[in-house]
Amino acid sequence: MKDTFLSKLKTYILKEHLTSDGDRIAIAVSGGIDSVVMLDALCKLGEELNIKPGIIHFNHNVRPYGCKVDALFVEKLARDRGLPFMISSADVPEIAKRNKRSLEETGRSERYSFFSSLIKEGTCDKIALAHTSDDQEETFFMRLLKGSGPKGLSGISPVREGIYIRPLLDTCRKDIELYAEHFRLCYREDQTNWDQNFLRSRIRHRLIPLLKKDFNPGLSGVLSRTIHIFRTEDEFLDSLAEKSLKTIIIQGKDEELILNAERLEHYNLVLKRRILRLAIFNILHNSADVDYDYIERIIKLLAGETGKLLRLPGIIIRNSYGTLILSKRFPEAEPVLYEKLLYLPGETISDFFGMKIKTEIRGQNDMSYNSTFKARFDGSNIHGPLILRNRRRGDKFIPLGMKGTKKLKDFLIDEKIPGYKRDRIPVITSGDDIMWVVGMRIDERFKVTEESKNIVHMEVNFIE
């Protein structure tokens, strides 16, 4: 068992060029079976690969007691093996709630912030992450269900930015379990792996087993080939985009790129999207928020009149006399103006706020109550389209229970919402009138009374 597993792992590491001689590898250990097996295997291969392993751990505080026990468990692993150990923590549930983001998204962001700080401080050369081939399958379906393109469906990369390496990406969870059993490795069970509130967990325990049972027992092999095809084609298209971008840059600085818009327009739509994504990455050094709609809005701007300006998360884009100017946006200086039409009745998804809004019309006899993310309104007072947006200068409304208008800015100050977060507070309007400061207060003018006949119900759920 040992020789086969370690031989396969070493071959994969060398084939994908995951390590170099003398690398200080910070092994991210959660305490779960995958990371404990990765730790044990890399320690056994340390001399052969000429690497220097250490252990790092991030405490998400998702489970108040369990996470502390995980941290103590990992610290003991480091102590028993005589390895360097570093730990960091964050209150992920509180941060997620405050920023209205999912636990998974927030946890990943905080975790990678910790990893990035280790690299910047020179604590290590690379960080080893325990993603397996099973994680690869789950990620494929997560991205497919969210409408990802070929880049997203190319899956998890064995190495990213030359820093993050995934030695177990070619190893299935079954082999990991056999390895742990053979060497009698102790590890911690993460109960969140079974929590069906998480999309990944539902895919792992419900979707993939169903597909293997009822549709294709060889699904893993099919997915592996499909992901490989997407990845190789993605790499090829990225190389073309990189060459093309160089030919259309008129001027480039750290925080601004000026592109030849006329040349860009001549490229095929597929390549045009890639060029724009790459240009944005060159400015922001991050493409997490750059989805399909993000790119399509830029393409629409490109085809529009000169002088038009577009504000998107992290960036400002101007169409100016044959050029496309992309500049880094500083949130405190220029807020993003966002709005989206709500379906009534129906469901609307907002990636900007990370939420899904369900609206429906019911009769007066339905006595559902207002709660933090559920509200009802008198439909007869709704005039004009329903719009989901962030705040605008001069916004006013009549908070429920009050008689006079109040500036939205003053209301948010009274509610102790920090300035940098106020542009991320969702507001739902009917025409120009605010109906609901989501999660906080509805407007007095839209409240349901005994005379109300058509009741508009709204429910907000945050998406993963």
Protein described:
- The protein has 464 residues and is an alpha+beta fold.
- Helices cover 40% and strands 21% of the residues.
- The strands form 5 sheets. The protein has a 6-stranded mixed beta sheet with strand order 3-2-1-4-6-5, sandwiched between helices. It has a 5-stranded antiparallel beta sheet with strand order 7-8-11-10-9. A 5-stranded antiparallel beta sheet has the order 12-16-19-20-21, with no helix packed on it.
- Helix 5 (92-99) crosses helix 6.
- The longest helix has 30 residues, at 219-248.
- It is globular, with a radius of gyration of 26 Å.
- The chain starts with a helix and ends with a strand.
Question: Which properties best describe this structure?
Answer:
464 residues, six-stranded mixed beta sheet, alpha+beta, five-stranded antiparallel beta sheet, 22 strands, 40% helix, globular
